[in-house]
Design brief:
Layout lengths: L3 H36 L1 H13 L4 H12 L5 H19 L3 H18 L4 H9 L6 H25 L16 H7 L6 H24 L4 H9 L2 H13 L7 H33 L2 H7 L3 H4 L7 H14 L2 H12 L2 H5 L4 H14 L9 H10 L3 H30 L1
Helix pairs in contact: 1-6, 1-11, 1-12, 2-3, 2-9, 3-4, 3-5, 3-7, 4-5, 4-19, 5-7, 5-20, 6-12, 6-16, 6-18, 7-9, 7-18, 7-20, 9-10, 9-11, 12-16, 15-16, 15-18, 16-18, 18-20
């Protein structure tokens, strides 16, 4: 047992400790996401992807757009922002709304559960003591999210395309009208910069750190590669997307970003507090006493966070909560299993993220966003969306285990 006063100390320490390391990263990420959403930059990115992929593969275009947009933008918001674009493209390419919806939803979902600065993966990293390796987690997350996106695309193109959605009778804006509604659209370079700049800076910083770079230039790039600094650079780049620098624009757009960050910070901080209480109680000692080293050695250990996260996700619906709670529960196991260092801890976060994908169904807000904005019946959404998320989770854990065998 733990004295009541100690519980309060642990809650305060856990909440504050996690906020110190990742609070600003979450705030900067949500500000970037809000500005991309309101400036039309997300739409401009979609346009570029469409040009690259070509009009003959609209589902692939939607999957890639989702993959990119959900790095800073919450998957629910991303789906709503891109919903009218998805409908306009479905009409233009003569494919079903259901297949375009599942392609977009699974692309968004992949990076939402695997790539910081989305709150779930960041909180998981903080809970297992990997906040110092966020650069590595972002880079590995981007790689692991690729097969998750591909399997979602194939499911959308082969299975979801057979699902017909009745016309809701609403007059939809066509693609050109959607673009016009934003007024002056940002250039492609401006649109991508707030996402790509932080990733490049973090990547360079991580590579120099791994190579053991010395000297002032190395120190400067390692400084720029710190996630807080890299995302601050992303916020500065996002400010070039503001139509003007009036008090109203700054207050509305940046204020909206801060408003969006508040509940995320609370969930994440609560996860940190929960994790600290667990680590400092008898539960941690009991978990450490389990004879897991023989039963789940090496790569097989990844199945533990995967199964726990999948059970929590399926039971209560929130991917973020599944990531936060699971990472808190497994944190005491990692020292026992000898799991430490950037790559092993990053792959543990991926295993938790894989579980937090499986499955999205009626208790998940994202499931309802997808059904409402696509017009799918719930039974059809089970076939299209729920099954797709199950496949994504399974493919992701298999790919993560393969990476473990190669890299660890």
């Amino acid at each position: 047992g733990m004295p009541l006063t100690k519980i309060v100390e642990n809650i305060n320490g856990g909440f504050g400790g996690l906020m110190t390391s990742i609070g600003l990263v979450i705030v900067f990420g949500t500000i970037i996401g809000t500005i991309l959403e309101k400036s039309g930059a997300a739409l401009r990115m979609a346009e570029v992807v469409l040009r690259v992929v070509g009009p003959k593969r609209p589902q692939l275009a939607m999957s890639l757009i989702g993959y990119i947009v959900s790095i800073p933008v919450f998957c629910d918001s991303g789906f709503v922002i891109l919903s009218s674009l998805k409908k306009a493209l479905a009409k233009r390419a003569k494919v079903t709304i259901a297949s375009m919806s599942v392609a977009l939803a699974t692309g968004l979902y992949a990076t939402h559960t695997l790539v910081p600065p989305t709150p779930g993966p960041i909180a998981a990293a903080g809970n297992i003591g990997a906040e110092g390796y966020l650069g590595t987690i972002i880079l590995i997350g981007l790689i692991v999210a690729i097969p998750a996106t591909i399997v979602g695309y194939f499911w959308a193109a082969k299975v979801a395309k057979k699902i017909e959605v009745p016309d809701d009778g609403n007059e939809e804006l066509d693609y050109d009208e959607i673009v016009k509604s934003f007024g002056k659209m940002p250039s492609a370079f401006q649109a991508f910069l707030p996402i790509i700049l932080p990733i490049i800076l973090i990547g360079i910083g991580s590579i120099i750190t791994v190579l053991g770079g010395k000297g002032n230039i190395s120190a400067f790039f390692i400084f720029l590669g710190q996630p807080v600094i890299a995302l601050l650079a992303g916020v500065i780049a996002a400010f070039t997307l503001l139509p003007n620098y009036t008090e109203e624009t700054l207050t509305k757009w940046v204020g909206q970003g801060l408003l969006d960050a508040a509940p995320i910070l609370l969930i994440t901080g609560a996860g940190g507090a929960f994790g600290t209480v667990i680590k400092n109680t008898g539960i941690a000692d009991a978990i450490q006493g389990w004879d897991l080293a023989n039963a789940f050695s090496g790569v097989w250990f990844l199945l533990i966070p995967f199964i726990i996260a999948a059970a929590l996700k399926t039971a209560q619906g929130s991917s973020t909560a599944a990531l936060v709670i699971t990472s808190s529960l497994i944190a005491p196991l990692l020292p026992v299993m000898g799991i430490a260092g950037a790559v092993p801890l990053a792959l543990v976060v991926m295993a938790v993220g894989a579980g937090a994908m499986a499955v999205s169904h009626v208790n998940d807000s994202f499931f309802w966003v997808v059904t409402q904005f696509s017009g799918m019946k719930v039974t059809d959404a089970y076939k299209a969306q729920t099954m797709a998320t199950l496949l994504q989770g399974v493919v992701t854990i298999i790919f993560t285990m393969i990476l473990w065998v190669i890299l660890v």
